[in-house]
Queue: 3 jobs
Job 1
Amino acid sequence: MNPIAEGSGGKKAATAEGFEPRVIIFACNWCSYSGADLAGTSRYQYSPNVRIIRVMCSGRVDPSLILKALRNGADGVMVSGCHPADCHYINGNQKAEVRVSFLKRFLPHVGIDPRRLGLEWISGSEGELFAKIATSFTEEIRELGPNPLTGDDVPEVR
Amino acid sequence: MADKAIGAVMVVGGGIAGIQSALDLADGGFRVYVIERSPSIGGVMAQLDKTFPTNDCSMCILAPKLVDAGRHPNIDLKILSEVTGFKGKPGNFKVEITRKTLSVDLDKCTGCGECAEICPVEGTNPFDENLGVRKAIYVPFPQAVPLVYTIDRSMCIGCGECERFCGPNAIVYDMEETVTESIKVGAVILAPGFEEFDPSKLTAYGYKDYPNVVTSIEFERMMSASGPTGGHILSPLDGRIPEKVAFLHCIGSRDSSLGITYCSSVCCMYSLKEAIIAQEHTPGLKTHLFAMDFRAVGKQFEDYRIRAEEELGIKITKNNRIGSIEEDPVTRKLTIRYIEGDHILDEEFDMVVLGVGLRPPINGDYLARTFGVELNEHGFTAHSTFKPLETNVPGVFVAGAFRSPKDIPDTVAEASGAAALAAAVVVEGRGDLVTEIEYPEERDVEGQEPRIGVFVCHCGTNIGGVVDVPGVTEYARGLPGVVFADDNLYTCSADTNKYIANMIKDHDLNRVIVASCTPRTHEPLFRQTLKEAGLNPYLFEMANIRDHCSWIHMHEPNEATEKSKDLVRMTVSKARLLEPLVKPRIPITPRALVIGGGLSGMTAALEISEQGFEVDLIEKTNALGGNLRRVTHSITGEKPQDILKETIAAINERKLITLHTGTEIETLTGYMGNFDVTLKDGAVLKVGAIVVASGAIEYKPTEYYYGRNPNVITQLELEEEMTKGAFAPKNVIIIQCVGARDENHHNCSRICCTTSMKNAIALKKANPNTNVYIIYKDIRTYGFNEDSYLEAARLGVVFARYSDESKPRLSYTKKGLVFRVFDRFTNTEITIAPDLVVLNAATHPDPKNKVLAGLLKVPLTQEGYFLEAHMKLRPVEFATDGIFACGLALGPKFISESINQATAAAGKVAAVLSKDFAEAEANTAEVDSEICTGCGTCIQVCPYSAIERGEDRKAVVNAVLCKGCGTCVATCPELAIDIHHYSNEQLYQQAIALIKNGGGA
């Protein structure tokens, strides 16, 4: 039996009503984080459910980190980096793309809906795009409902 | 004995050229004063949406340079200032600067923008080419540097609201201050940029009368995501989305009726870029470009054009200068009449973009008079081919569009070149005037429990107006590890920074968090504050509760407050794990290696030695001079062979230069500061920096009976023939683009069109009865080279245009050569019996580049030229620190352009060598060899070859080469690598603190 796939429900699962997703966006310093800054300076209003974690490169985002976040109850995780060929570190974004697409195939096997993981290219000049993506991703996650995993029932992985 | 040179340089103009010159000089140990007339540095590049041919976002690549210039301790930005006086001699000039300030105290303004929020007056925004609106008190654009507000008095109604609302009391409405100061510098660089051509005087285009006719720069603002229409292309009349857009080239260029005969060099490419981006923005949009010639002369520009035409369906119609636009008064659609083949066609468009040319800067005449600098007949500065950045006034240099219209990479190369020349003037003053900030000794926090201080910023009302800042502060006080929290009106103001430093001492803080705006602009400032308070700067972290919270949730104060608490909690969780970091220092061997003894290599070697450093110059053949040895005359009248002799003599005399001829590199290892090189002749060199100046080769044609018929020769062979005398051909045909712009070699060789003009003019002048025919695809005499095209035409040179579908044909019979071509201009077949056919053989990359690139571990383009670190802003650098390139090795270019790049590369080298040590990144990766299994996956993914195998086969990171991207960390299957400052545990705790409310404890 797979305790992960079963999902124990926990405190959130039952309360789909009034559900506010918790969404993490790992944003690269050079493009997507500055795109998020520009969304701010341009006052593009977007969903307040998103929390950004700054990394230097989208290629830094470790699949196990994403997995840990999802298994501990993050409702959605997105990795966002520079557009292809714009990477500040030559091609870190390509590596991010490979990892995310691999991880998306893997997630169902551990009981996680792969739609909870996103990947987007957002440049430093695309404030509006950042806002749009932040909102649309949040809405997609809202549709999916709360992440049944809470981490309480999962053994810690390293 | 003359006075010692003053170790300071003045840069007039704060566009990309001025910024680049200033950064190079400031990094090289000189004080720099940047004089900018407007309220912010950035220039025209700040207005651009994307840049060709990479479609890079312009602001994204410019903004970091703005911030660097703004916070550099050796750069003084003098905004709203003009030069009003100039005297002295090289090394010791006195420049008078006048700054006019209205109402805002530049030192007190924090750039919070509350004044603009409250200002009741809205008017058009010149930064958006008056398509958008702004308040009467404004910053030109959000990323402006310095970020201080200015009142537009022409718009202001004088209500004084801004003065009342200004938190830091920076606005004194009645203040009108004119400050004149005298600044001593050793050299001056003029970089005032250019002015756009104003098409309103050309009534036939209906600009300003027909609302759907816009200029290219207006269109650029429309395309910009941060522009007035948010990146949507809309009709300025009714906001409709256009279906068809036309781009007209040469508006205010190549137009003798206006007295503007030169080509503006960049309009073909920017029009194409705008067409590409417009089609990307508006699905289904059709674009059509109308040009006389399509001048895609830069590196990989032709590839860009081919992609646009073939893949994106962008239509380019050549042979057309559109003279007028007709507007339908009802539909407001615009009709353009043009010629295609034998047909005259009318085509209707929703919008027409005028590709406006580049004019001399508005203050060009004034600057020329003030500095005594000569201008050419076009109103730009006058220069010789071999001293392209120097003016008639010693110690005064010019960079960028004030010299001639040009694109960004050429501008940046010139800016670095001018900086190098200026540095050579003031070199004895290096380090005299730079600011060395003394910091107290760092406190040892090793093993201490975290004692975190949290400073929550109101940012005026920017945060405080939405978020419950005292509530967030109170919340922060209760988080584990936090021993102090307070809220501040403006955390970035100078007095709050003093307060932070005091609190660090009073409360014995060993971690500091500021919850305010973005670390991208403010982290350096607060890190500085930590250093001043004796804390390691890496014990600092920011929570972005403005850009990522209050500004985007303006109507949801409760959610914004909760989110701010989450962001602070996440940041505290990470901050508990912060560790002090030290940037590794790399000692520098103050000696350079220049590879290649052509003009570029010799220039680089000479300029490096001008700044006092030793140089090893290696040349694979036995003689210096490279391709220049075969250039016999120049279009400007200088004698290339005389100059070559002088240059070689200078190399031989210069004691700092060691020449190695007839040899090549055998092995090369090391990194910036410490390269170990062995040559094939056995010599062993140790250098701190390297310049690649290995040149290019002339294509050996296989076409047109070359090598089989003695009357078919190449352009360089023609030059050699012409010097021999007794050379009087009757019918000369010059065929362009041989080995260029064909199936196998896509790109343009840039120089051949002008070289043809040069030689055609010389042939005509030597014998006016000689018939000279130039057979071309496009005439690409960009910039002032256009003058040579006009002169050739005036002297009776005949031009015929061919296309790929109808290539010229040459046959030879016993009677001689017969040449046929279908001329696309007159649509007729032309037959000529030439006694000489000159093939304009392309410039091709040296096949040996592959070997050299392998030794240096630097990349090549698909074609085989060296590939610079960044097409736009790092034209002479590689991504690998300490290795630079210049001249033909990077791609085809003119002598003057090679000299500019060589000088630029030399300046970069000197800046590296002038330091005792270089600082590398602190947030580098580190391997836990206990866990590492030696699988080598990290070695494969590292983009900088910074990871090697140690003696035990396990991975070892070279901290000097590591840039801190963290790709290896994400790759390691054993989690054996971690990266400082973005460690697995730090990111995990940050994430978990969000997911589990109150977690991370």
Job 2
Amino acid sequence: MLKIKPATGQFKTELSDTKAALHVVNLRKRFGQLEVIKGLSLTANQGDVISILGSSGSGKSTLLRCLNFLEPPNEGEIWIGGRQIQARAGATGQREINALRINLGMVFQTFNLWLHKTVLENIVEAPIHVLGLSKAEAHLRAEELLLKVGLADKRHAYPSQLSGGQQQRIAIARALAMEPEILLFDEPTSALDPELVGDVLKVIRALADEGRTMLIVTHELNFARQVSNRIVFLHEGQIEEEGPPDAFFNHPSSPRVRQFLSSQRDGYHR
Amino acid sequence: MTLLQGFGDQIIAGAITTLQVALTSLVLGIAVGLCGAMAKVNGIGALRWLADGYTTIVRGIPELLIILILYFGGTVALTALLGRYVEVDAFAAGVFALTIVFGAYATEVFRAALLAVPRSQIEAAHALALSRALTFRLVILPQMWRYALPGLGNLWLTLLKDTALISVVGLEDLMRKASVAAGATHDPLTFYLIAAALYLTFTSVSLVGLALLEQRAGRGVRISE
């Protein structure tokens, strides 16, 4: 269990990095004896698009899931827009966790659209019940977002009537409807047929162009290279290497990164 | 009134009582079952222990015995409590007993249904900052029905027929009315066949209703276009 340390007021303004959209300090996550995130620190400034790479088991997805407490971290601090959530032994209040989640839009690998609700219902539920929007406001917002992801004609469809790529674009619209400060993408194209990946990447790219702050866990190296301004490479729950895409892909300093990149390239030739 | 040798009205009144007992027990039993299932799945130690004890005891004793024990036990308890002899109302005793029985089986049906809702559906709600109560109401409950309805349908049919057991404590239900008429007219076969036909009608209509409910609960999952 975790505790949010009562900060002086809800907002601390004395910090030098208040312009950081997201600031993670010394985050730790254990599953039983196994430590999956080992004291990881990371800062994302406003407008940063950070791709998180690493082999499976390196802790990429767990890192994202710790940020919005789908997996409660064991230790560490999470700052969002200057507001601190401190993850320590003890009970973190549900209200504080929800305040964090409102600011972090999550897009899952398997979309996780609610199967019993239509596209429109999927998008409007949280804005109505969490943000307190009126039905009319929520629907207006949903319609705008559906236009944006190019699926306005699917508003009354159920998720099972859509392709994976369409479902993922709806899931992105659902996350955007909360107007979060930061978007988290957890392998957003890994569950898609190859020919459907492009449409989803196009939407994510458009969001990056808008200047949104995003963390993207992905295996799409070319996409990561094009869309992000920073690459973070995880290995065994720690950051092995980070830097701008050109430096990372062309002159990686870590042998592990070199090995990872060459194995990925081999993969393409298979 | 010569219809059924004058017992037509009686049979109809009995059938209405049967439906009233069954429907009241159904509504209350569903509430008990939902609480029991949540206690078993999310409950803390004592609550879970209580729910386990409840389902173990009730499911392990014949329904007829439960009805008799609750009826006579209720009479003894109320008499002791109020200091004078009180006879328990047969309708109330019947509803109470059938609610207890239905609730125990429904607890297990709902428990399975709760566990069947995919974790990913719940995580999506959590990630969107929906509270636990909202997640339950908007996501878990509507999806649970799809898994629970076939089991609940079975329980409902059993409940409808178990109302016949309440006649042993004097409830003027369909079974008892048929039995009285059978005795008075010396024509048991006619009246028991009529009772059987009525039970069969109720259950058949229920099956149609259940099919419609299942269709509704399966929306978005089984699309027939």
Job 3
Amino acid sequence: MVNSDDLAQLIIGCKSSDSKCFSQIVDMYASRLYGYFYRLTGNKDLSDELLSELFVKLVEKIASYKGGSFEGWLFRIASNIFHDYLRSKQRRKKLLDVHKEQIESEITEQNKSGNEQIDLLEIQLKRMDADTRELIMLRFYSQLSFKEIAKMRSEPIGTTLAKLHRGLKKLRELMQ
Amino acid sequence: MNSQNDENLKELFERFLSAEQAESGVEDIQKAEQILRQHPAPEPDSMLIANIKAEIAMRLPAKRTSTFTKIAYRVAYAAAAIMIITAVSLRTFDMDAPEPGRVQYASIMPTAIWESDDIVTDDVDLAIFTIEIEQIEDELRSLQSGEYISDSDSSLSELEMELVAINNDFWKE
């Protein structure tokens, strides 16, 4: 884990269009951001696409980063990209197709060995409402505090805490 | 930097729930997050990461070019604006306008005078400036009314040169 001074230096480098600094940022955050997209879409190809889009946006928007939590800023872009994706009619149709395929293969996947646990979590996550699922994934992959998440979602911290508590409790019950 | 490490979940829950409920809430969250840790999402493909890095590298020089192009456009716009203003000003002097000068001497007033706090010096400068402008106005009126006996083309050229000289002197200050 890079310390905040090193991260600040990397961001300065990115602002000066240094490709090496961007590469380091990609190495640092790609895994978490990919996990976030994958858990929300349940689809590798879409997650690939959204992750690429996110880093392109990063290049375009890095000049507008004015300090504060970089993770918060980055995951806000990720969240916006995911919501844009949901809004797109074509992509929504694609998502529905993906859901259909997932439901059809649900029984088969439950009987699989090896990746069984990964698939089970994915299935249970799909049973939850989209907002709670996104909140859980935001908390888990961004590693932001409740205060930062509440600020990002423009809602009181008590609301965020209650939603996430309810969501995680439900997920725990579903997984047991 | 892990912001979650900086927060005290129990304390946060206790702001909204009783101590007992808060403890249970923290436990719920920790256990559910443990489940998420036990079921990691797949990692991005190394080829995908390489492609992303290549795309970023490709976009960076383009970004620089775009910034350079923007600056070049701004300079071109500014140069075009200066040329248009100069052309309009010259045309105005050539034409038989009834009140030449009033607007023009306001526009060539040096910024230093507008922004300076030295009122005494500025007053003197402004007085000299105004007198010179008035002299030019008088000469222009004389020319228009035909009082000037000398060759009108050369007089106009002299006037123009005088104006340019005054303008340059003030900008040097």
